[in-house]
Amino acid sequence: MTVVPLSKKEYDVNRRMKSHESEETNWTQIAAGGSLLAAGLFLLTGQRKAGFVAAAAGATLVALDQQEVIARVWNSLPFYVERAQGLLNQVQDSVEELAYQRERLHKVIHR
């Protein structure tokens, strides 16, 4: 039978403290998450007004924390608006064509 020695690593308190200090806690994200969690709980318990207020506060905190993402979305918004407008124009053209064909069919049937 072979015995394998298990080496015990020395716990370096100074190294642990330095690595912990270098990690920065993002309190904005924690507050936003807590606010959104509270909003969900308020909504689940039927307190709609408090839930919506907490959700708005959480969304505002997220927007403050993620300004770069918000700027990218804001800058790409005109592209999506143009695509939606093009889609709506196609739907409108289709509805007008359908109405025209309906009117023609109605005239043929009721001669």
Distance between the ends: 104 Å
Order of helices and strands: HHHH
Please state the overall shape, judged from the principal axes of the Cα atoms.
elongated
Radius of gyration: 30 Å
Please state roughly what percent of the residues sit in beta strands, choosing from under 5%, 5-15%, 15-25%, 25-35%, 35-45% or over 45%: under 5%
Instruction: Classify the helix fraction into a percent range.
Output: over 70%
Indicate the low-confidence ranges by residue numbers: none
Largest sheet: none
Describe the protein in words:
- By secondary structure, this protein is mostly helical.
- It has two domains: 26-65; 67-111.
- It contains four helices and no strands.
- α2 (27-44) packs antiparallel against α3 (48-65).
- The protein starts with 12 loop residues before the first helix and ends with a helix.
Which descriptors apply to this entry?
80% helix; 4 helices; mainly alpha; 2 domains; 111 residues
Give a brief description:
The protein is built from four helices and no strands. It has 111 residues and is an all-alpha fold.
